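Below is how a single chain appears once it has passed through the pipeline. First comes the sequence as given, then the structure the pipeline wrote out for it. We keep one example in the README because the format questions we get most often are answered faster by looking than by reading.
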Amino acid sequence: IRILRYITFFFAVFGPAIFVAITTFHQELIPTTLLLTIANAREGTPFPAFIEALLLLLAFEILREAGLRLPRPIGQAVSIVGALVMGDAAVSAGLVGAPMVITVAITAMSEFVTPECENAIVILRLIFLVLSAVLGGYGIALGTLGLLIHLASLESFGVPYLTGLAPMHKHTLEDFFVRAPLWSMTKRPDTFAHRDKTRRRFFIPPASAEDQSEKQ
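Resulting structure:
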């Protein structure tokens, strides 16, 4: 589940930016068959890929805000039906291409997996979208580098924000990307444990008399 959240966070932030960068600057990275399909779908659209992504993301944000301020059953229906109707109408009218609608839809669904990062995702997605429209893949790389530098400079109560990667500790990595079995996590992270580095053993409560009688 943790890896799935990482993947969806990546799609939510970088999805539209990568699509815009590839279709605008790096068409050679797309297989020929897929490139022809995308070109055929975008034929006749009046806007570049960046404007398409910006308009669809803006429409998605409007629908989401409208759904939040309506009663819950109605709000969910408005968001789903509105997205379907607007997406189909935009493609039928030739304003946007179907590949861009699919990309934004995947991005929107990925954002719901990490709702606690909603505001950060919206801001980062817009920044990377602008960078990809201006510099292509180089813009995404520069933006990612700047983001990592910023995260590495942050601290929370004196603890580096990226503890486990920067600085890297063996015992912290046990519960970073994938959580190791509890029985193997015997040491506390070096950042937190300055005196006693041994974890407390996990206590297994004894079975009660009722449980023992049921087993018998």
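The chain has two domains: 2-153, 160-216.

See the next section for the split statistics.
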